Amino acid sequence: MSVEASPMAIPVSADRTRRGSLRLRLPKVSRSVLLSTLTVAVLLAGWAIVTERGWANELFLPKPQAVWAAFVKTMTKGYQGATLLQHLGASLYRILTAFTLACLIGIPLGVLMGVSRNARALLNPLIEFYRPLPPLGLYTLLVMWLGIGESSKLSLLFLAGLPGIVISTIQAVTSVDPVYVRAAQSLGATRRHLLFHVYLPAAGPLILAGMRISLGFTYTVLVAAEIVAASAGIGWMIWDAAKFLLSDVVIMGLIVLGLTGVVLDLMMRAIAKLLMPWA
Amino acid sequence: MTKRLIATLAFATLALTAAVRAEDKPAKVTVGYLNLVNAQLVTKHLGLLAKEMPGVDIKYVKIGGGGDMLRAIAGNDVDFGGLGNPPTAIGATRALPIKGILVINMLDYVESMVVRADKNITSLRDLKGKTVAAPFGSTTHYLLLQALKDEGVDPASMKILDLAPSDIAAAWLRGDIDAAWLWEPNLGKAVKNGGKILVTSGEMAKRGYPTWDIGVVMNAFAEKYPSYVDRFIKAECEGIEFWLKNPEKTAEIIAEELSLPIEDAERMMKGTGMIPCSQQLTEEYLGTSAKKGKFVDTLVATADFLVKQERLPKLLPRADFEAFIQPAYLEKATGR
Question: CA angle B69-B70-B75, nearest 5°?
Fold first, then answer.
């Protein structure tokens, strides 16, 4: 499979055009906010109606009030020895550490593979091979190698996040207009200049899009990572509550997890706007 | 358009119901069995269920522990299952559509707490500051907390980790944990690699905390195919009889099913209490339909404990646990 044909490029360009129009026509923003609110409201109303009417077994779909009560209780009294914020803190620490490591290693690796054909040929087999491996299969091995502590959890999250960043960075670097490079070179740019003043600024927006996708991948393996020998973390809380059929805690945990994901994504976009106003 | 759709749906429902009425034989029976040492392995190995249910596709699914079994039941993935008393108390409290119909086994030293021999742990008090593992929600997790409470040891003074038995064995070999309460066949792996037994589940039973596994059937299956519940019980009872009468052959079967040396299989078998079906209807176990036995007491005590651990929202009245235990099928199968 060629890197250029990677499916990761699709959401990226769509997102860029959307953000472009976002700045120009303000009224459209409030309209899309309105529509988004409508979606959430309809979903909540549907949930309330279905549970109030007794159409759903409460074991599988508890009432919104029950989920709220679980939220309040976990915030104040905690779930199995840790409050919701402590669980959230444990999970966010794992996610952000692993994600930062994935960026620190993935972006330089991607730039290298994007600029040098030889590097790409050398490293591509590794990335392409482990990328589709199911995380749980990988995890068994990580636990055997690294033990049941934090290092195996962080490694799993790291490995889940890495390929997304590498692949979109390669994609971003290879799609930099060669005219920019030649223009800079004709003005006497060194390799260092090329990297920091041509490749990175031009590829920045696409790399950022890759980082956002990669953060999503890190999130998807959180529960898997916290199944083995954790005693705190949102993923562990969801898993543990499921064992005791506490579906209100499970749903509450999923909502909290989803919301933190949205907030982190918004933060990344805000940082990007500050760093790359040209995007 | 909508009317036609409703009419079609109604017709389809009618046709389906009619089909079910006429059909008193299930196409497929799924048995979820726990990864333990008991006579269910014999029944499975000898194909006794297939003999009782000719023409039915029988599927055995191995399930790692009580938590997973509860999920399988909640997801309607099995027709018959097996549960230890803590998951049973959870399932009954959360109104899972199941009934307890058979004693699968009583747990003696087939479940034990193993500690690292070189760590100088001679009592539960020595566990302070150590790392202890148990599969949360299972019989052993329940006994661990119960034992700590009886000794007055604060569970917060040690690190208690939730690990599946197979993961405990792996973590033990790596030296990540100092103690664990789990069951065979993985218990033996820990004992062989620098472990010694500190407490057995049998000792806890003598202290008033018996643990056992009970065979359960999905309510919907039992209503639709009551005679097949009888057949299931008959097959399992035959397996138990075989276990009690042919210990040598049983050891061979267990050794083969779990890929163990024969001596290990023999030792594990002795740590498991198999109760002949005729005795299961006594006061000590299920009791009779008229007067339910001590299993109800254990369930109430277990549920009460789990409520205090904040694992269950509230303690149900005793009658609900009595309703869960259904000796009627066993009474019919043993001709009482």
Answer: 95
- pTM to 2 decimal places: 0.78
Looking up tokens 């599988």, which residue turns up?
A: A60
Residues in chain B closer than 8 A to A59 (CB atoms) = 74, 94-96
Distance between CA atoms of B167 and B181, rounded to whole angstroms? 12
Contacts of B310 in chain A (CB under 8 A): 80
Query: Vertex B127, ends B122 and B131: CA angle to 5°?
Result: 130
- How many angstroms separate the CA atoms of A147 and B173, rounded? 10
Give the separation between CA A268 and CA A103, rounded to whole angstroms.
Answer: 13
DSSP character at residue A221: T
Rounded Cα–Cα distance for residues A136 and A149 (Å): 16
Q: Is beta strand B179-183 parallel, antiparallel or unpaired with respect to B131-134? A: parallel
Inter-chain residue contact A242 with B310, CB threshold 8 Å = no
Can you spell out the DSSP letters for B43-80? HHHTTHHHHHSTT-EEEEEEE-SHHHHHHHHHTT--SE
Name every residue in B having a CB less than 8 A away from some CB of A.
66-67, 70-71, 74, 90-91, 94-96, 133, 136-137, 156, 159-163, 167, 170-171, 174, 176-177, 306, 310-313
Residue located via tokens 């509450």: A252
Cβ proximity of A256 and A234 under 8 Å: yes
Q: Do A244 and B312 touch (CB under 8 A)?
A: yes
* pLDDT digits (tens), chain B, 336 positions: 455 555 555 555 545 554 444 448 899 999 999 988 999 999 999 999 999 999 999 999 999 888 889 989 988 999 999 999 999 999 999 989 999 999 999 999 999 999 999 988 999 999 999 999 999 888 899 999 999 999 999 999 999 998 889 889 989 998 999 999 999 889 999 999 999 999 999 999 999 999 999 999 999 999 999 999 999 999 999 999 999 999 999 999 999 998 889 998 999 899 999 999 999 999 999 999 999 999 999 999 999 989 988 888 899 999 999 999 999 999 998 876
